[in-house]
Write a structure and sequence with these properties.
12 helices, 2 domains, Peroxisomal Thiolase, Chain A, domain 1, alpha+beta, nine-stranded mixed β-sheet, binds acetyl coenzyme *A
């Protein structure tokens, strides 16, 4: 008799580059200190890609981990979705390079770009729909190589970020990680408080723009981002729990986007969540954008913080503003 198949997450994986950049390393380059960065953000160190690594390298490494964890090979993949704000090149998208490098058949492969740190959860929910449509195995990857594209002289932003990739395989299986409920939302009126304007049709690349450093000018109104992140991630958590008919008490672990330590503390306080139920790796990896949720989720499971049967709540928030929450059962 055939075993019953359910659509869910079949495997998880992550990759972080070897090079470690500490707060003291930053203090040698710009006017900052370990004390300022630690107290304002909870970050002590982050990983930066080697000079010869690109976004596709990071993405492929994480994808291989997720495929191995799922126990499937690249030729069993039916679709690829990559979430990134730091793509391999402007066009074509990173997914095309990943498809070729992994040796996946000529299946649909596309990027979901520009949704910032919320990208992975949005892509995961799209993958669930696509997997349900045709019993497909969908490879979802979130990758950020922010160190290559940020302004290393802008102390307001550069100390926050790190490079990483995370991946998941979504598809039918006898015993997958269940995706119980998902919610998402966007408030485009707040696009201007966290954005990289140059390079699009509004501010095309020109020599003058490049000379002015606009191609690396991340606009970030830190305090407003902070307020919005706490408000939206808190509300998204409540909304997805209500949708699944569950309470926060029933959740074993909350894995949020690792924006910064103080944002995480404020989200926990808003939700009334005890510290031991909130997973954070911000101290060692910083803010790795869309890759932060799959990286944290993979590490939480590796560290034994998640057991079979545990409900786990994922929440994220990013430029746009976009936010998303997803409730899983392992
Ligand atoms: N080192 C030392 N001093 C710094 C640094 C730095 N790296 N960066 C800024 N400062 C200075 C500022 O210039 C300012 O100096 P001034 O008072 O002389 O003007 C001073 O520190 C205080 O700046 P504030 O803006 O008051 O600092 P605040 O306590 O608000 O912390 C921070 C700033 C950490 C950015 C905070 O607003 C925050 O956490 N915002 C959320 C932003 C965020 O997490 N973004 C992540 C990307 S978005 C995402 O993931 C969704």
């Amino acid at each position: 008799m055939a075993t019953e198949q359910t659509i869910g997450i079949l495997g998880l994986g992550a990759y972080t580059p070897e090079r470690i950049m500490t707060n003291d390393d930053w203090a040698e380059l710009i006017d900052t200190s370990d004390e300022w960065i630690t107290t304002r953000t909870g970050i002590k160190r982050r990983r930066f890609a080697a000079d010869d690594e690109t976004s596709a390298d990071l993405a492929v490494a994480a994808a291989r981990e997720a495929l191995a964890d799922a126990g499937i090979t690249a030729d069993e993949i039916d679709e690829i979705v990559v979430a990134t704000d730091t793509p391999e090149m402007y066009t074509p998208d990173t997914a095309a390079f990943v498809q070729d490098r992994l040796g996946v058949r000529p299946v649909p492969a596309f990027d979901m770009a520009g949704s910032g740190c919320a990208g992975f959860l949005l892509a995961l929910d799209v993958a669930r729909c696509r997997a349900e449509e045709g019993g497909k195995n969908v490879l979802v990857i979130a990758v950020e190589l922010i160190s290559r594209l940020m302004n290393w002289a802008d102390r307001d932003t550069c100390v926050l970020f790190g490079d990483a990739a995370g991946a998941a395989v979504v598809g039918p299986g006898p015993n997958p990680i269940e995706m119980l409920a998902a919610v998402a939302g966007t408030d485009g009126s707040k696009a201007g408080i966290l954005c990289l304007e140059a390079g699009g049709t509004r501010v095309p690349f020109t020599l003058e723009a490049a000379k002015a450093g606009l191609h690396k000018k991340l606009v970030m109104h830190g305090r407003e981002v902070f307020r919005e992140a706490v408000h939206r991630m808190g509300d998204a958590a409540r909304e997805v729990l209500a949708k699944a008919g569950m309470t926060l008490d029933e959740v074993a672990l909350v894995v949020p986007h690792q924006a910064n330590g103080r944002i995480l503390d404020a989200v926990a306080k808003r939700l009334g969540l005890p510290a031991e139920k909130l997973y954070s790796n911000i101290r060692d990896y910083g803010n790795t954008g869309s890759a932060s949720v799959p990286l944290a989720l993979t590490q939480a499971r590796e560290q034994g913080r998640i057991r079979k049967g545990d409900p786990v709540l994922l929440i994220s928030f990013g430029a746009g503003f976009h936010w998303a929450a997803l409730l899983l059962r392992f």
